[in-house]
Design goal:
Layout: H1 2-26, H2 39-64, H3 70-94, H4 99-118, H5 121-133
């Protein structure tokens, strides 16, 4: 399970960086069905692409940690789910988007529960290995009352 979490975290990070970079460099041309709404919307798309690129870098950072921090996975997966929920809100408010946006929405709503389920896998496996070898790894600082 930990290997799947690591692989999915890397895949999410690389995909998001690539998508963010594509949108940053090509603007509205990278948005299926966008047409040419003008410079304001293009500016908005390019701005959000930089945020998306940063989001992908955050996933890559998470994938490089050992163990992969479950809190960070849940936070990033929650943001991803919020993106899918936002697409649902847009659909309800303005109507059905391009078919490709529906595919993206499905991914954005389906993957986060998987990430939530896997979020503690690496921490659990690291703790189990530590118990087997008798080596303890420092955990988060906790205060005692």
């Amino acid at each position: 399970m930990a290997r799947l979490l690591k692989w999915l975290s890397w895949a999410m990070g690389i995909a998001d960086v690539a998508i963010g970079a594509l949108h940053l460099t090509t603007g509205l041309a990278a948005v299926p069905g966008a047409g040419s709404p003008g410079p304001t919307v293009d500016s908005l798309v390019r701005f959000f692409s930089a945020i998306f690129l940063g989001y992908g870098l955050a996933w890559i950072w998470v994938a490089r940690q050992s163990p992969i921090p479950s809190r960070a996975v849940r936070l990033l997966a929650g943001v991803f789910f919020l993106g899918g929920a936002s697409r649902l809100l847009s659909w309800a408010a303005l109507g059905r988007p391009n078919w490709f946006q529906l595919v993206l929405m499905g991914i954005e709503l389906a993957l986060p529960p998987l990430y939530f389920w896997l979020s503690t896998a690496d921490e659990r496996e690291t703790a189990a290995r530590s118990r087997q070898t008798g080596v303890t790894t420092p955990g988060p600082a906790r205060s005692t009352p």
